[in-house]
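Subject: for your reference before the review

Hello V.,

The reviewers asked for a structural picture of the protein, and I figured it would be easier to keep everything in one thread rather than splitting it across files. Below is the amino acid sequence we used in the manuscript, unchanged from the supplementary table.
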Amino acid sequence: MNQKRTKFILITLLLLSSMGFSQTKHTISGYIREAGSKELLIGVNVYFPKLKTGTTSNTYGFYSITLPDDSLDIAYSYIGYQTQIMKIKLDKDLSFNIDLAKTIELSEVVISARNEKISETTKMSSIDIPIAQIKNIPTLLGEKDVFKVLQLMPGVQKGSEGNSGIYVRGGGPDQNLIILDDAQVYNANHLFGFFSVFNGDALKSVELIKGGFPARYGGRLSSVIDMNMKEGNKEKLTGEAGIGLISSRLTLEGPILKGKSSFIVSGRRTYIDMLIRPFLNPEVGVAGYYFYDLNAKANYDFGDKDKLYISGYFGRDKFGIKQKNSNTNMQSGLYWQNATSTARWNHLINNKLFLNTSFIFSDYTLNISSKEKYDQNTYELLYKSGIRDFSLKSDFYYTFNPKNLFRFGAVVCRHQFTPSAFVFKDSYNNLNESKAKYINSIESGLYVEDEAKLSERLKVNGGLRLSDLYSQKKSYLNLEPRLASNYKLNDDLSFKLSYALMNQYIHLLSNTGIGLPTDLWVPATSRTKPQQSQQIAAGFAKDFIPQNFTLSIEGYYKASKNIITYKEGASFLGISDPTEGSDFTWEDNITSGKGWSYGGEILLQRKTGKFSGWIGYTLSWTQLQFDEVNFGKKFWAKYDRRHDISVVMIYEIKKNITLSATWVYGTGNAISLPLGEQPVSVHNMVQSSSKGNDPNMFDYLPTLPFYGEKNGYRMKAYHRADIGIQWHKEKKWGERTFELGFYNAYNRKNPFFYFSQVELNSSNQSVRKLKQVSIFPIIPSISWTFKF
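And here is what came back from the structure prediction:
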C-alpha cells in the first residue's frame, strides 16, 4: 500500500513538473514615472487585455508581474494621464520604465484602456482623492486643506465649526494613523484646530482607509491617512507660489543632478500677527499668533536597483501675550510643534522581489510658559509635554504570479512620552524646582499579507499582524487577523466583505475631543490596557463605465474596548502640582470603557471629466460607556451624528474657468446642558445667619448647575454651502490663477456652543434662557497663485 502511494506521489510530481516546463513564464517589471519631471507615480494600472489580468505600481512606482510566454498588448493607464499601449513578445524577462504624459485637457470620452475598477479591487472602505480636486474645493479663508476635504467623505465626521479634526466611524482624533512619508504625525492641527498642517502643494497622493485594513498597517483603531510627498522635478526648475488672506506659500522643485537627483522645498506662513499688530494697544497688552510649516525632500536614483529618499516636515504654532507697565513685566505663551524626518532606501533584489527600508524620526512638543517680573522678583512657570519616536521599518513586495502579490515586513519603534515636565521659579519665596516624568516604551510589529485571486470571481487580501508593546516592565502581545474579499457578481458589480482586529498602544487624554494641543499622549501601562477594536464591513461596489462614475454602498459595525477618558471634572492641569510635589498621575485621572459604532455609507464619485466631484451620505450611531462617567450608563458620543450629507461639485466652464461648490448637512452634536441650579455651602450660610449676620443672605446664595444624562441634548442641525471660482491664465513664465471664494455662502448661523443666561421677562421675573454662539458668518476669500 505504501509502495502504491509512493508511486502515485512520484507520478503526480512528474506531471506537475512537466506542466511547469510546458508553460514557461517570464516576468515584466519596471518603474512608472511622470513625463517631464521623472516623478514616480503611485497606483498606475498595468493591464493585459488578452489575459484580462494586470497589476498596479506600488508606493514607489515599481510594478512586476509574471506571465506565460506570449505576444501581448500592455496598457499603462492613470487618472489625469494619457494611456500608453505597447506590444511586447514575452519570451524572456523584460524591464520597461514608462513615462506617462499628463492629459492636456480632461475629456468626457472614456479611455479605452480602462482604469482600475472599484468592482475589481479587494479594497473597501478606502478612498483616494486626486490632489487636483483637493486644490479646486473651496475652503475656509481660501486655505486648501487636505483634512477639510476628507471631512466631506462618508464615514468621516468633522469636529466643531471650522475645525479640521476628523472622526472616522465613531473614533476619536487619536485613533487615526496619520502618515507622511512613513512618519507618524501626532498633532495635525494649526490655529487651534482650524487648519491642518499639510500643505497640498507638497503632496503627491492622499489615501484614507476606514476599514478592511491591510496587515501592513497597525497601531490605530479607526483609520489610516497615508500621504506621500512629491519627489521633485528631475528635469527642470519649477515652482508655485500663492498669496491668500492669512498666509502665503512657496514651493520650489528641480534637479540636483539632472535625470538622477532632485529636490522639493515647500513652505507656508501666516501673517495674522502682522495684520493685527497696528490695532493693539501696547499699554494694555500685546497678543500675537502665527504658524508656519516647511516640507523638504531630496532623492538620488542609483539606477533600477537602488533609490534613496530623504524627506522631512517641520511646523510650529506660537501664541503669546506681553504686558508691561512701570512695576511689572509679564509675558506668557503657548506653542506646539511637529517635526518628522524619513530616510528611505528602495532596493530591487530581483525582478520579483522589492524592498523598502525606512529610518524614521517623529517628534511632537507642547510648551506652556508664564514669566512675570515685578520690582526685583521673578516668577516663572514652564510646562512641557510631548512624544518622540525613533523607528526602523522594512517592507518586502513579492509577486509570485499574476494571481498573488505577497507582502511581508517588520517595524520597531521606540517611544519616549513626556506626560508632564515642570520648571518652577519664585525668587520672592526662594523656590526653584524642576520636575519631569518620562516614559519609554518599545512598540513592534510583524506582518504577512497576500492579495490572491482565487477564481475568476473571487479575490481576497488576507493577512496577519503580530503586534507588541513593552512598557514599564509590562508586555502586551497580540495577533491581529485581517481579511478583505471581493466577489464579482458581474463585470461591473461586486460584493465586498472585510474584517479587521486592531490594537492601539497609545492613548490621547482629551477634555474637548477636538484634538487641541493641550491633549496629552500617553502609553498603555500595567494599569491602562491597550485599546482594541473589531470591525466588520460589507457592501457593494459598482462601476458605471460609460458615465465614468463609481458607486459604493457599505454597512459596518465596530466594537471597541479599553478606550479612556478623564474622570468627571479632571483635566491635564490636575495631574500634578509642581509646588506641592504631588505624585498624582494621569493614570489616577482617567477611567476606561467601551464604544460601539455602526451605520451605513453611500458614495457616488466621479474623479475626472469637465464635471467631477461626489455625493456622500452617512447614517450612523456611536455610543460610549465608562463605569465612572454618567453613572455607568451608555451615552451618545459628542460627535455622534445620525445623518451626514456632503455634495461636492467641480465644473470646468471653460478651459480657463473652474467653478466649484460644496454643500454639507449634519445632525447636531450631542452635548450636556444643565437642567437647573442648586445652592452650595448651605451649611456654612445657615451658621452665618444664626450668628446674626444678614438674614437676606440666602438671596445671594451662590449656585452651581446640575446636569442630567451626559450628552443628552442635541445642538441644532449644521448645514452650509461654500462656493469658489478660479480663473486661469497662461503666461510666458507659467500659469496664473486667481480665486474668489465664499465660505458659508448663505450666511447660516450654525451653533458653535451654547450657554445659559438669566434675563428678566415681561413680568420682571428672572428667567434662565439658552443662548447660541455662532462664529463664522459668510466669509469671502481671495487668493492669487502662480506656477512657473
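For the response letter, the relevant points are probably these. Residues 6-22, 105-114, 575-581, 684-692 have pLDDT under 50 and may be disordered. The radius of gyration is 29 Å.

Happy to draft the paragraph if you're swamped.

O.
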